[in-house]
Design brief:
Length: 601
């Protein structure tokens, strides 16, 4: 039995409630789609054509999207060297796609349609054989299914649906029929109806249903990306699972205190295959601070118009929502960090200070990237790591800074970091993978970000900041405030040390101006910049680089330099030891204290 919810301002009364997605729109409810988006779209590609790997996947990734690729196992090539049919993808390619988040799923081993032509036993074998092949070669068991020829019958559907979150029962052709008007009409209809659109094509430039004008599809994706606040682009599995979980989750809601609500979710689906977190919507017309915990762990909350949203585990335990007073609201602290190897991290996590290993992190959320990684804007609970195929578990000075900062703040704060070892500012210097931090306007105009395959680390860094603001920081109930820019770099600029003063000055100005333009807040023109010097025993030390840092600090009161001239280095004579990294991290924190970002030293 459903009880009524009476809402005036924020909450005056909430009775014990059993509710599902269909709850009163003015009350607490599960969002129709992830992040409370207006509609959802899944882009699906049939038959495993080679250009799904070379064209479709890269274009989706460029916009932060992931697709669903329904493959016919018997047609997939075994490797790039064994091309039985060059129009098809290979298993290694499919495995790479899966690692990037694309869904590789079942379209039948031999594409046997569900018609009288094939027995139910043959259909079952066709499905199971393809499941096994995908699991063996890609490493992930398919949890969805696409009917060959889009032909379905009730008995065949029962077989296909066993152990899955969903099967494709509806779709919209976006291949040869598509032109700009057609795609615009489809997108607008979804925004109006709030439905889930499943786009389907086989070919792109060749094959069945190939586009007459492929550029119109890329233009459509650009429009969808521009509407990312309204449109959830998820794989077929993600959206199908979310919808089924949403419609089968019951919420028991009880107000236990004036500003505390307890919500207990109940979901009886198979939690081994239904793994999507659901988005809960809490009305918040009075714009109060709202925090939430589930199973003793803090949930990240976001401000959205007149409500607060957060993701929760529908299979988890009780959710406790706490409503703060308006005067308690203070913007969340944000730190941005960038640089080369001593910022990237070169000390093994085994050598983290004991106080960090014993207590770990509770409040620090970071959005981290390096060259070659896509910009996502997504945050995760901080634990030090770097991008490296065999040795990712390493830390830098900032791990200490963040730990000390969270001990002082005792509340969630956010870090946006972009780093890569061996990189220079000056393009006349040798730089790892030909990637640079240069802020030279002409060079930037001729290049693009490393996140999209280009050479500019500065563009990647600022794109990552922008994505973090758009997807998370701008939605925080309490707002956000960028407090400081942490940096350590300079070794790779030693051969152009005479230019380092102007080069670094331009980088700092570029980031500050970017924040002003992005946020509209002029105060970021004076954003504190904190850096450390290069140890003089470093084999890549440059006196000119060091002098440039102190000259900048003399000229700009918001530029701070930490003396690391006598810092101990590892055997490579390049990277700080654990002790030196801890010292720099502590000194960075002390500067933050002096700036009023944290408590006493």
């Amino acid at each position: 039995m459903k009880a009524n919810i009476i809402l005036t301002g924020l909450f005056l009364l909430i009775s014990t409630l059993e509710t599902t997605f269909a709850a009163d729109k003015d009350g607490i409810h599960i969002a129709r789609y992830k992040d409370n988006k207006t509609c959802a779209i899944s882009y699906t590609f049939d038959d495993g054509l080679a250009e799904h790997y070379t064209l479709a996947a890269p274009q989706l990734e460029k916009r932060g999207f992931r697709g669903t690729f329904w493959i016919v196992g018997s047609k997939i090539n075994q490797s790039n060297r064994q091309r039985k049919d060059t129009t098809r993808m290979t298993w290694p390619q499919l495995k790479k796609m899966a690692k990037k988040g694309h869904e590789i799923s079942n379209h039948g081993w031999a594409h046997k349609s569900h018609t009288p032509k094939h027995t139910l036993a043959e259909i079952r074998e066709d499905i199971q054989k393809n499941d096994s092949a995908i699991l063996a070669n890609v490493g992930i068991m398919p949890l969805t299914y696409c009917y060959p020829g889009n032909r379905k019958d009730p008995e065949g559907m029962k077989i296909a649906e066993e152990g899955r979150v969903g099967t494709r029962t509806h779709q919209r052709s976006i291949g040869s029929k598509a032109n700009p008007q057609y795609l615009d009409k489809w997108l607008n209809a979804l925004l109006t109806s709030g439905e889930w659109g499943v786009g389907m094509t086989h070919g792109l430039t060749y094959g069945y249903d190939a586009f007459n004008d492929l550029q119109s599809f890329w233009d459509h994706l650009d429009k969808v990306e521009a509407m990312k606040d309204q449109v959830w682009v998820g794989t077929f599995r993600e959206v199908a699972a979310y919808i089924k979980e949403r419609d089968n989750t019951r919420l028991d809601i009880v107000q236990v205190k004036k500003r505390k609500i307890e919500i207990t979710p109940t979901l009886t689906l198979d939690k081994e295959i239904f793994t999507e977190r659901l988005t809960l919507v809490i009305p918040n017309e009075e714009d109060r601070s709202i925090s939430a915990k589930q199973d003793g762990k803090s949930l990240q909350t976001y401000r959205q118009n007149d409500c607060v949203i957060f993701d929760f585990n529908p299979f988890g335990g009780k959710i406790t929502v706490t409503i703060g007073k308006s005067k308690d609201r203070k913007p969340a602290t944000v730190i941005i960090t960038a640089g080369q190897s001593n910022t990237d991290g070169r000390v093994s996590n085994d050598q983290l200070p004991d106080y960090i290993k014993q207590n770990r992190y509770k409040y620090c959320h970071w959005c981290y990237g390096s060259a070659g990684q896509p910009v996502t804007g997504k945050f995760e609970l901080f634990w030090p790591r770097m991008v490296h195929p065999s040795r990712p578990d390493r830390w830098a000075y900032d791990a200490v800074t963040y730990y000390l900062l969270e001990q002082a703040l005792q509340k969630d704060f956010y870090v946006v970091k972009w780093s890569l070892g061996g990189t220079a500012i000056d393009t006349a210097c040798r730089s790892t993978s030909n990637k640079y931090w240069s802020a030279d306007p002409a060079w930037l105009a001729a290049n693009h970000s490393t996140a999209t395959g280009g050479r500019s680390l500065l563009l990647s860094f600022t794109e990552n900041i922008a994505a973090a603001i758009d997807s998370t920081l701008s939605k925080l109930p309490e707002g956000y405030d960028v407090k400081a820019f942490l940096w350590h770099q300079g070794e790779s600029d030693r051969h152009q040390g005479a230019n380092y003063y102007n080069n670094l000055k331009a980088v700092v100005a570029y980031v500050r101006n970017f924040l002003v333009e992005k946020t509209g807040k002029k105060k970021y023109r004076k954003l504190p910049f904190i850096c450390g010097t290069v140890a003089r025993s470093n084999k890549q030390y440059s006196e000119e680089v060091e002098k440039a840092l102190y000259r900048l600090a003399d000229e700009n009161k918001n530029f701070y330099v930490i003396d690391m001239s006598e810092a101990q280095l590892q055997r490579d004579q390049l990277h700080f030891t654990a002790e030196a990294s801890e010292y720099l991290g502590t000194q960075m924190y002390n500067r933050l204290v002096e700036l009023g970002v944290a408590g006493k030293k």
